[in-house]
Amino acid sequence: MFxxxxxxxxxxxxxxxxxDFVALQRLVDFHVDAGTHGIVxxxxxxxxxxxPVDEHIAVVKATVDYAAGRIPVLAGSGANSTxxxxxxxxxxxxxxxxxxxxxxxxxNKPQQRGMIxxxxxxxxxxxxxxxxxNVPGRTVADMLPExxxxxxxxxxxxxxxxxxxxxxxxxxxKAGVTDxxxxxxxxxxxxxxxxxxxxxxxxxxxxxxxxxxxxKMVNAALAGEHEVANQINxxxxxxxxTLFIEPNPVMPKYALYRMxxxxxxxxxxxxxxAEPNNKKIIERVMLDMGxxx
Length: 293
Description:
293 residues, alpha/beta, TIM Barrel, 8-stranded parallel β-barrel, lysine biosynthesis
């Protein structure tokens, strides 16, 4: 269920900052039609840090309703407060989500023992499966492979989104976990190689903009057709790079706006919309890829 090409979905918004639920439904349909294998709703790309709890829950519920069982939905339930992560998990479990993606607590900089205690408490609070999310570039704290291995022994912790871009971690983690523990890349630039080296898929930002190509690349990599996968990925590399010239999700929000899938590229403070020059850069890449006219 949690394998393949999974989108870290943006949360579309109107110009006044309200969530655009019509555009959200359009995006869910866009991914189902494109062959995306799963959706992460209100993860960090979905601006979880700036959506209050009631709004966070409403967006996840709407995503599950729009998906209507056609595609698995993981709900972002991470927080830098363990109590808040538990509250979110318990509130969203009845909504029909297939599991949770829970990020390493940010700012607090917990010790490895603190991470173990945090994630065990979150997993104990729900009957849904939990995927860990390690992205030290945003959280500062880095969950080490040894910690992942320890947490994999919890019956509800079923996998990890590993977003360091360090491909050496695949072997280290695989050596200490069972075969059914899911290893997902969270780094688009190295995602193809991550799968070729034994990973199970990617939770992708690029997937917001080019879902059909991402699905095709991931399917080839999972099938062992590494040359085909690398050829497709070579076509995607300019997009992988350009989507991160400003902090995520600034650029994917603008790209989807230019594709006509959302009515605005509004993003909540403390982030602001993309610089004009950066908009021109991604437009050139999208033109070259045939994503816009």
